Structures are given as C-alpha cells and as structure tokens.
Amino acid sequence: MSTVYVVPSCLVGRGIPADNIKRGLKELNPDFAFDIGGRKNLWHPDIEFAQGVFFGPPGNERHICGMDRDVCPEFSAWTHVEEWAQVPFHEVRPGETCFISPSGLPTVKRAVQDKCIQYGWRYTLGCIISANIYGCNKQALESKFGISLDKEYSDFEIAVVESRAERFVDKSISFQ
User: In the predicted model, what is the mean pLDDT of residues 132-156?
Assistant: First the structure.
C-alpha cells in the first residue's frame, strides 16, 4: 500500500485565477483557445482540474500545454508516494530505517514525486513563451500579469515552503 502526500495549492506560491490568465492571453493574441475537449464533450482523466491551452485558427488549433481550471498556483503541485530509494550515505537522515543494498548503497523509504495535480502559472506561461507565439514573449506576459518570470528561488526558500507543507500534508489518501 502506498500513501499519497498532497501539498495544498496555498503553499505553492502566488495564485492567479485561470480566468484572468485566459482573458490576458486572449488580449495578447486572440488566437488562443481553452478547454476544447470540454466543449466537445471529450473526456480526459484530469478534466475536473485541468484544461488545455490551444493556439491557432478555429478548427486548426494546436495544443500548447495544460492549465489549471480554478486558481493557478505559482508552482506546480505533485502527489508523492512512498517508495524505497537508494541514496548516498550522507543523505541518510538520523533515525531513518535503512538497509544496505547489494550495490553497497543505503536504501531508505522516501516520498517521491508521482503525478502532477496542478500545473502552475509558471509552467503554463513558460510553455507559451517556448511556443514562440506572436505577442506573447516574456516581457509582454510579465507586463500583462504583473509578475516576474526571472525569480529564482534559493534552497532556503524552497525548504521553508516544504517545511510549512509538511504540517498540512494529507496522508489520508491510500491506494492498494
């Protein structure tokens, strides 16, 4: 049985409502389309929380990336499952149960990233920049949404978010 750890979206940065992102992208270039599958009654496994971002003339749109339906957190959120992992000796935590594998490395049980449950606006806007869409360069997106896409987060800032998240982790979801 694996336990799934879910980090609440309120802990993954500044959120922007999906409707604001859709409206802003359409203002920058009217050839954006969203949730084509939902409008055509095409089901996909993440339809309840995700939608597609498409670009192109109606009927000939191409898929750019996914986007959250409600509030888009700044960063992606993932489920985590506990799995046995080999780690270097210096990464074994005090009190952690481990055994030495045949390869000579310690093996410990750790939470590992499993499935993306929220895309985050940094991911979505990064994909749009990478798609090289007219009117949607980095400067235009930063200006439209009042954000900076240059911010890099130190290990300390990430550790603070992770330590806050540990208090809110939902360990009640289990799979067999």
Answer: 83
